[in-house]
Amino acid sequence: MFQNDFRMLRDGALGLLSLCFCVAGAAQDYSASDSVWQHVKGNRLSIGGYGEAAYSRNFYSDNVFRYTRPELYKNDPSHGRFDIPHAVIYLGYDFGKGWTLSSEIEFEHTGTGVSEEKEYTEGGEWEKEVEKGGEVELEQLWIQKSFAPYINVRAGHIVVPVGLTNAHHEPLNYFTVYRPEGESTILPCTWHDTGVSIWGNVGDFRYEAQMVAGLDAFQFDRENWIQNGAGSPYEFKVANKYGFAARVDNYSVPGLRIGLSGYLGRAMHNSYPHELEGDDANGNKKTYSSVKGTVAVGSLDFTYNDHNWVARGNFDYGYVGDAATISNIKRNLSANEAPYRKTPVGKNAISIMAEAGYNVFSQIEKLRQDGQKLYVFGHYEFYNPYMPSFVQPKYNYTKKIRMAFGLNYYPLPQIAVKAEYSHRFLQNPYNNEPSVSLGIAYQGFFL
User: Fold this and answer.
1) SS3 of residue 236 by DSSP
2) pTM for the full predicted model
């Protein structure tokens, strides 16, 4: 059944990709980390950032059991949400002689909130209250030495540019109100880790190679594949194992960028405490010392911007070695082990996305001269974060198609007002998930 579905989805995606490629070529777009550096270059101090505010009305159930007993929640009422998905501050400094510093501080969902309160109803006891959810993350903090355009070295906390969204994650780099679901589901997004990067530009090519801290197999799960494996619940990032990422982009065709990226690393035995590898006191092999949990991800993506068209697409496919064994280990660990996710991890995961938009204001001379743009776009995704081996249980609700269409209005190059209708299609007996979303986003430098 999956092969038939995949062929159908592949043909649909390739059709849209063909449309995207037929509309030929525009200006080079920089990777997320390079966009910061390009502005810092030649300026002593740079301050900028990006952010989004969004509203969604979801016309499906938000009950946590909607995939367990879908028939009970088919007619549940809709629900709405306001959100600040990302608010980011860029800080950069040029020390001179080829040495630069760049940083990116991100507040997700407006950050976290905790307060101390005195509970008079409990004898004046002081309690710490969690006021709100959210995250504050340091997504980039690196120092770079530039020797020549073709060789630059970065060390610190860097973006891992595997996939389209990680390499180009600012909100003006996609039409949808929220980041594309497929890559954001199966991969860490934004994927950032500590390590060393070597990159440069050679002719029409840009290359980058990285060594970073490895992923943690105990954080993999059914709904998000390896997404949570790059994080750490500790004050430090465990690095018993290491990962290697690489990316190459080509700009030979005017207006068209084509990128190939990938990741390879071991994820097992990269938890804390480090207990499941090596020999015991008697020289006997520990039970899981031979389990490696090798992670391999490959991605092909493109961006096209010319002739009043903007089009983007990606194809990602990944593999986790020993997935069934890792799933069993996680399920059987006792409650006092290091934090982990107990749901199984699939052997493979996939994400396909294509979107294309046309600037209709390009046909209105006054608006064109004023620099305003209005893109009418269509968006297609197929993704599945849980593709099990034959010995693993199946959960068909993880396989999803998402289609959307809408508008992006640019009153200025740095600001976009977004509106979309989307429909998420699930297999029977699960219920489809339509929604309407509105958003406004900015991206730029202030100093």
Assistant:
1) coil
2) 0.87
